[in-house]
Design brief:
single chain; 474 residues; alpha+beta; Immunoglobulin-like; eight-stranded mixed sheet; six-stranded mixed sheet; disordered N terminus
Amino acid sequence: MKKTSSLVSIYSVLISIIFLLSAAFPLPVSANSAQAHWTGTTATGAIVTNDTCPIIVESEILTFDIQEFPKQYYGNVHDYLSYTGKVTAEYTFHNPADYMVEATLLFPFGTVPDYGILLDPKTDERLFAADTEKYNITVNGTAIEKTLRHTLSLHHSQFDLERDMALLYNGYLTDTFYSPDTPVTQYTYIAQNVDTQKYTAANAAWIVSSDPSKTKVFMENENGGTLLDNGTQLECWVQDQPFVVNVIGEPLSQMPEWTFYENGACDKKINGTMTLIRTDVITLKDLVLSEYKEESQISEQDWYNAAITFMKQSEREFGVISASEFQLDLSTNLMRWYEYTITLKPGETIVNTVTAPIYPSFHTTYEPPIYEYIYLLSPAKSWKQFGPISVIVNTPYYMTESGPEAFEHTNNRYTCHFTGLPEEELTFTLCQESDPTAPSHTLSMFSPIFMIAVLLLLIVGVCILMRKNNTNTK
């Protein structure tokens, strides 16, 4: 009886403490679960690609037209393309040289935002919205030709002028190992004779020990890997779908020897067989373009170059290309750029205007939500000389934060001026109200701090119980 009463007492105390903690830190109540933060895109200014270009920027007028906030979700392309948020950069360029100058300019304006990713409800395939076609680039009021370019831009990576510009190639990327015609041997397997009802998390694995200078391996269904002394063990969940192993470069000296395990820990073996059902030989270009869509308005070369850059960044020991990092569908990992050419006669001054869509990140934990806009000014350092910048934000909303300087507010317009290029990037936050309510930092029953506290209390309780039990036994 003493043991039972001790156990009841301890857990009564623990439950009481939990409720006391709950009372001390009120728990937030939500009607629905939803993503609290959505990622938009950063925009930036025109960059000259000629190192010795004499053109100077006499001034810039930067105008944001934000008459509406984007939706958290767009169900169709028409609604998405109806979004009107845009930024217009008006540059006054001057050529002080005594000769004609032709310069190629680049204007990066970010990736497609989270809320701009559309799927066809019938096929579940990605829909590419041509949100850039409705905007023009002009010189002295006349539209000029522009080319849409793309480079690799992984999620949450910060824009870096030198690094990102280096990713823009004319033609296919050249590399000592990767080339468009590099052979790829595809082995397609199917798992059989595995008791998946008993082992619902069954895994299959094999060891890659190839020479990375000659062979690289990309297993599309990989869900993890383990570095061993003699190679890298590639692992994947056992499922009804085929397993595809891509061997890039020279073929494997030894075919995969598969082992099956109870789960992802890969420590307890189970019965199973992996049957090779097909072998194909394609090119590396075929592989990396397998998810490419012509209607995406992305050039094959830009897609290929981004994929190879991605592959090289995802390489691991023994020539393994990690599928947990690299993916064949690049559509959500591409920075978009305008590329265009301007020509200035000796002593000529022109006005070049670039308009692009602008997408904010927004935080729905605020009431009402706040929308953050980022415009990168630092890339303008690529110019020989940069004059004053005037910033105009046309909007019916309230500007709650801004940097690096404060804006002046008149009617539905915010303005600020810089005598030269600031060191910091331009940021501002808009909201439907002037003083939104910030999220309260309450302690949830599912927060890490709360769970750790409960766990510590349980450990203490168990220790006390064991000590009492030992005392009662004596």
